[in-house]
Amino acid sequence: MRQVKTKKQAIRIQCPTCGAMQSHQPTYTETITVGGMTVGHDPFFGLELWLQSRFRNHLFWAYNLEHLQYMEEYIAAKLRERQDRKYMTLVEKLPEFIKSRKNREDLLKLVEKLKMK
C-alpha cells in the first residue's frame, strides 16, 4: 500500500490508448501499522478485515469467527491466570484495552455486533 503525503480532491487519469482524460475523486483510509503490518488488514492480501470495528480510540478486529469466539471467551473470563511459560501466547500479546477489566462489558457488546455481521 502506498503512503500518501497530501490528499488531493481529484486526480486526472489519461487512457494510454486513446488519450481520453477522466477525473477521479480518491477516497482515503487511515491505517495503523505495527511491525510493518497494517492493523485490521489481511497480512497476505492487504485487504481490510470484515470483522473489525472502532472501540474508543482503538481498532478491534478478528480474522474470522473462530478468532472472534476466542477473543470473546478471553474478554468474558472473570479469572485470567498467568502461567510461567518460556514463550508468549496470543493472549499475552493483546493490546491493553482488550485486557482491561473496565472495558469488558463494552467489548462484549461490540463482539456481539460483529458476530451479527
What order do the helices and strands come in, and which of them pair?
Elements (H helix, E strand, L loop, with lengths): L10 E4 L6 E4 L8 E2 L2 E2 L12 E5 L2 E5 L2 H12 L19 H4 L4 H12 L2
Antiparallel strand pairs: 1-2, 3-4, 5-6
Helix pairs in contact: 1-3
Describe the fold and architecture.
The chain is of the alpha+beta class. The chain has three helices and six strands, in the order E-E-E-E-E-E-H-H-H. It has helices spanning 65-76, 96-99, 104-115; strands at residues 11-14, 21-24, 33-34, 37-38, 51-55, 58-62. A hairpin with a 6-residue loop joins strand 1 (11-14) and strand 2 (21-24). The radius of gyration is 20 Å and the shape is elongated. The protein starts with 10 loop residues before the first strand and ends with a helix.
Low-confidence stretches: none
Strands of the widest sheet, in order across it, are 1-2
| SSE string, helices as H and strands as E | EEEEEEHHH
Q: How large is the count of helical segments?
A: 3
Descriptive terms for the model:
117 residues, alpha+beta, two-stranded antiparallel ribbon, 3 helices
Structure summary:
The protein is of the alpha+beta class and 117 residues long.
